[in-house]
Specification:
This is FCRL2 protein. This protein has no helices and 13 strands. By secondary structure, it is an all-beta fold. It has a domain of 85 residues: Immunoglobulins (Immunoglobulin-like). The strands form four sheets. Strands 6, 8, 9, 11, 12 and 13 form a six-stranded mixed β-sheet that branches. The chain has a three-stranded antiparallel β-sheet with strand order 5-7-10, with no helix packed on it. It has a two-stranded antiparallel sheet with strand order 1-4. The two termini are 48 Å apart. 15% of the residues are buried.
């Protein structure tokens, strides 16, 4: 079931075989409600968010529940400006300035939820 399935529905039937007549039910309204986003989590590769200077770090965002087309944004040290979009953020060559708290924000248009922050340490 999708949100766009909301609407008015009725059924039609043909009664009889020779001189059939058509009958129609009274319409009913069906409303499909979206499920708010919840359970947004962040994982890192390498695990724990500790990465050697110059190595690659990949952060992944997942949503446990929710409906609607999802969009993602990545935030560093509480900045409102996103570092990137999409369910993954890749730092190809981690530098000294990349340490800090990272957070993923998921949005479905109807609701927004954030992951707990993950502290990344560049060693």
């Amino acid at each position: 079931l999708q949100l766009q399935h909301s609407g008015r529905y009725h059924c039609k039937a043909k009664v009889g075989s020779k001189e059939s007549r058509r009958e129609q039910s009274a319409p009913v309204t069906v409303t499909v409600h979206g499920i708010p986003l919840s359970g947004v989590s962040l994982s890192a590769q390498p695990p724990g968010g500790q990465v050697a200077l110059g190595d690659r770090l990949v952060l992944s965002c997942a949503v446990a529940a929710g409906t609607g087309p999802l969009s993602f944004s990545w935030h560093w040290r509480g900045s409102p400006l996103p570092l990137g979009t999409g369910p993954r953020l890749e730092l190809r060559h981690a530098g000294d300035n990349d340490s800090g708290h990272y957070q993923c924000r998921a949005s479905s248009g109807d609701s927004v939820a954030e992951s707990p922050p993950l502290n990344v340490t560049v060693l």
